[in-house]
Amino acid sequence: MAESRQLADKADAAAGRKPRPVIDRDICKGCGRCVAACPRHVLRLSSELNRGGVRPAEYLGEGCTGCAICYYNCPEMYALEVHTPAQGKPRAGRAGRAGVAGKASPH
Ligand code: SF4
Ligand code: SF4
């Protein structure tokens, strides 16, 4: 049962229904600050190297609360954003779009 809940959480995160960090693995410098700062321990460094030859941060796929602490601890511009589902009324002109805490909003 717990396993099916985990799969549902990952599907929700992937579909933007739950908060989630979005990491650009090739911009990430693998410093690990976000991993250390996350109060939910839902980030880790990948076992695979990125184009820069470092192990980038990655999301475990579930458990993110959208607190954005990882974002505020990341020294690399454009490496990390936190996307959160829209709450209540959609923002003007952006119906249903998720909120983004990040240096580079994709829209
Ligand atoms: S937003 Fe908060 S809970 Fe989610 S990955 Fe970042 S630090 Fe962890
Ligand atoms: S803090 Fe930023 S640069 Fe450092 S590992 Fe996390 S995402 Fe990568």
Outline the structure in words:
The protein starts with a helix and ends in a 6-residue tail after the last strand. By secondary structure, the protein is α+β, with helices and mostly antiparallel strands. It has one domain (19-101): Alpha-Beta Plaits (2-Layer Sandwich), CATH 3.30.70.20. Mean pLDDT is 82; it is low at 90-98. It has helices spanning 2-14, 33-37, 69-73; strands at residues 20-23, 43-45, 57-59, 80-84, 99-101. The chain is built from three helices and five strands; from the N terminus they run αβαββαββ. It has a three-stranded antiparallel β-sheet with strand order 1-4-5, with no helix packed on it. Strands 2-3 form a two-stranded antiparallel ribbon. The protein is 21% helix and 17% strand. Bound molecules: iron/sulfur cluster (2 copies). One iron/sulfur cluster (SF4) is lined by residues 23, 28-34, 56-57, 73-74, 76, 79-80.
